[in-house]
Design brief:
Length: about 375
Amino acid sequence: MKVEESTENELEQSEMKVEESTENELEQSEMKVEESTENELKQSESSTVMREKKEIYLVWEDVTAVVAKNLGKGATRKLLNRQSGYALPDRIMAIMGPSGSGKSTLLDALAGRLSSNVIMSGNVLLNGKQRKIGNGSISYTTQEDFLFGTLTVKETLTYSAHLRLPSTMTKDEINSVIENTIMKMGLQDCADNKVGNWHLRGLSGGEKRRLSISLEILTQPYVLFLDEPTSGLDSASALFVIHALKNIALDGRIVVCSIHQPSGYIFDLFDDLCLLSSGETIYFGEAKLAVKFFAEAGFPCPTRRNPSDHFLRCINSDFDKMASTLLRSLRDSAVSVPSNFETSFTTEDIKAKLIEKYRSSEYSINTRKKIRQIALINVSSLHSR
Ligand SMILES: Nc1ncnc2c1ncn2[C@@H]1O[C@H](COP(=O)(O)OP(=O)(O)OP(=O)(O)O)[C@@H](O)[C@H]1O
């Protein structure tokens, strides 16, 4: 009897154990499925932030910006006059022009961050809609670097990433975004260096600028606006910054930056050019075709001269004073004055000719055509982030 009882007990117990363990296993496997589905969902949500490539189109048409003069007593001053253009993904655009020509104003108008005293008319549309910075689609980097001197590069990015990336992202995913950003911006060698401040030796100017840009690309905005990203940098650091921006553009983003006077190497990296003078368009189109446009307008770029130097030499009125002083001294010393457009025309004349020429040129016609074509594309709307 006892043997029978114990065998029965053992059988019962072993059956219970099997049932229990099967139940546990089932529960565990159910939990695992739930967990992995949740993880997959989270991953797909975060990969939207990490890898999303969209069709994006930025167009602006007849953008005019005006400020009141004399404390608003009627008179106004035009900062931009009927600017039209478009920017496409995978391309980097330079807004160039002499100081005060309206580069920052145009950038502000496109990014929707004009000062309250500036009145703007015309349209700026991103995928057919007006947008402002602040929803994650658009980022804007100013000339100044606002960074904490006591944090390292990695710490700076980590703080910002945890504050700005979606809460659905796991720690590992956030870390991978940070690592990718560090690689993309070439900050690997200084990732553990402190930013530095007035009493703490830290990053170089170029590294600081690349870190500032890194903070903006963490959230993978569709459009990046940068105001003079190379100002104050030596030529190698400036080239590094523009190279990094070009790589960001090639990731399916639109990159538009104002730049004062790029070196030949840097100019060659730009796909598109918007050349301004006194708020007027001198040229808008492919950067490499600008030399052809200037030649067609009667102001060919001398061989072996940096095109951007030539363009600014033609439209920067500051050269007039220098040219007239030089001419006077040549005449006084009875030296024959060389005859070229630089001595035959004032920059005001050259500017007027170029503005006129551009308005009736194929470049201007093509720009309008392209803007109309873009308006007809049924682009998907962008997510606000
Ligand atoms: N909010 C404003 N109120 C009044 N005038 C303004 C305002 N913003 C810009 N301006 C004027 O508009 C002109 C163009 O300024 P903007 O900053 O766009 O030029 P820029 O080409 O970027 O010059 P820089 O290369 O020197 O930065 C300047 O004469 C400037 O004083």
